[in-house]
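Ticket #4471: structure output looks truncated?

Reporter: J.K.
Steps to reproduce: submitted the chain below (271 residues) through the standard prediction queue, then opened the result file.
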Amino acid sequence: MSKKAIGFMDSGVGGLTVAKLAMQELQNENIAYLGDEARLPYGEKTKEEIQQYSLQIANFLIKKEDIKMLVIACNTATSYALDYLRERISIPVIGVVNPGSIAAVNNTRTNRVGLIATNGTVKSGAYEKAIKKINNNVDVFSQGCPRFVPMVEKQEYKKDNTQEIVNSDLSTINTDNVDTLILGCTHFPIMRELIQKSVGDSVILIDPGYETVKQIKKILQNNDIENKENDEVTYSFYTTGDANNFDKVANEWLNYDVHAKHLPIKELEEL
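Returned output as attached by the reporter:
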């Protein structure tokens, strides 16, 4: 059991920001990652669609990779499908919303926390609920940024006019006087420098991935499923989209030679 891989799922390449931290912090653990690029953005999908997609991905990773736990490295899927998956699969499942909320509450000095995310995550109210449960005195100011996900997926965030787009999309959150800002989509840390420049150095950016990896480690320890062997680890990557495009982004972000396998949607739909 301990040598089995940890599964990671996301709507695309964004979850690689969490997988990268896991690769750095959990160096004995094997990893299997699936990015559902053919059906992104999840932020514009219905709750029922997101739950259906998430269960298909979970079933694939369990069947194909025999994973020992699943990390929903997607804020929208966490918001709508975390409890849904926990009720339907037998392995531990963790999302990114609660860990990100804990980090935000621990870092805010003024109890004014900002959230930028997909429209789906914002509409779900998942972060507000999680944060209020931790500290009811914290006010949350949310802003949907749907343009950021395709900018990362297509690597358009590197273009000259990107900072202007980021400044425009963050104009509302920049008037809310927050001191802490949650990057509530796993794609967003890839644009961290652009976002930080827009909100200013005084605002603390929260990447839920850091706290998520801490929680992953606790779950592995509590369930006694840590891989304590020093064998060579294996990393497997799948995408429902263009494997070559996935590899370009993944190779640059992970500094690792990724060769993703293309997974036709039809195979997922049959699970």
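Triage note (M.O.): checked the attachment and the full token line is present. The CA atoms of residues 92 and 269 lie 23 Å apart.
Status: closed, working as intended.
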